[in-house]
Amino acid sequence: VQLQAFGGGLVRAGGSLRLSCAASGRTFRTFLMGWFRQAPGKEREFVARIRWSGGTTSYANSVKGRFTISRDNTKNTVYLQMNSLKPEDTAVYYCAAGSDSFGFDYWGQGTLVTVSS
Predict the structure, then answer these.
(1) Count of CB atoms within 10 A of residue 1's CB?
(2) Is 95 exposed, middle or buried (0-12, 13-18, 19+ CB in 10 A)?
(3) Which residue of 3, 60, 61, 107 has the smallest Cβ count within 10 Å?
């Protein structure tokens, strides 16, 4: 499974960005798609996840109400709409794919999101 993430950039606080993650290869092996982020000097943390089937979602408390994860099964693409961005959202964002059994075991390259104050 190959994951290609894009859509990062520089935005002012209060602004919005949408990240995309396109999955290719043996995507039938994956049931979950997720977004994680890693800020400078910090460990990688969970942001949001979604199931390909049914679209069930979950979010980190820090982004609830501001971020929305969605998917387009026809395009094998997952999105992360980020609104009301804060400087503390600045991080490299990674998309990941996996399953309940094995967790997130496929990772894409990161895309940098920088939120200026």
Answers:
(1) 18
(2) buried
(3) 61
pLDDT at 54: 85
Q: Compute the average pLDDT of residues 74-92.
A: 96
Chain centre to alpha carbon of residue 89: 12
Give the burial string for 15-40 (b: 16+ CB within 10 Å, else e).
eebebbbbbeeebeebbbbbbbbeee
Tens of pLDDT, residue by residue over 19-78, are 999 999 887 667 999 999 999 999 999 999 999 888 899 999 999 999 999 999 899 999
Which residues make Cβ contacts (< 8 Å) with residue 64, sequence separation at least 6?
Answer: none
